[in-house]
Please model this.
Amino acid sequence: TLRHRCCPACSVEKPIRICVRPDGLCVATCAACSFVYLPDIPSTDEIIQIYSEYARYKPNYANTEPFPSSIRLAWWTLRDARLRILELFGGLRGCRLLEVGPSYGRFLSTARFAGATVEAVEVDEDASRHLTANGIPTTRTVNLRRRYDIACVFQLIEHLATPQDMISDIAQVLEPDGRLLLSLPNGGEAALVGSSWVGFRVDFEHLQYFSIASIA
Model:
């Protein structure tokens, strides 16, 4: 079941087709702002259903090590580039950190080991149980009454039907000097490669494709 939407970036209805993905969905660019997105996407209920059972569709999504050892956590801390970025720009120790969409919490476990107080927003039911069992407070939506020094959103906003709503919620819960760390595929490559870009042929959960300019 598909529903039509305007451009998620500027709300204008001027899609120009780029290609049709192997799953049959059209990829378009907005004639007004050049944002690349899917004009027709699955219904909200279907999207929620997919992510409430995401591990069923993505077997590698699950973490086979329920409670990482201190040695393993120390190893992850040394190797995780995201942690190095946060350490370089303000540090982690004593900070309140929220991750949205953490899966089974490997990054959160590592950030906690590095001295942060961590919380999670996760809709996958199995992952949420795992996080709770690992002592990480977890909710299904961003609690707008909480405040955080750091918010982390990794490989997520390209999946959202209304990414601006998520960013708006995060802006409300971040302290005035808070930090937002994002990671996502570089959709700007599509402008260089064209309709044959690999990003249009894999990861069909992606509903839009951000470039550096469009995410700004």
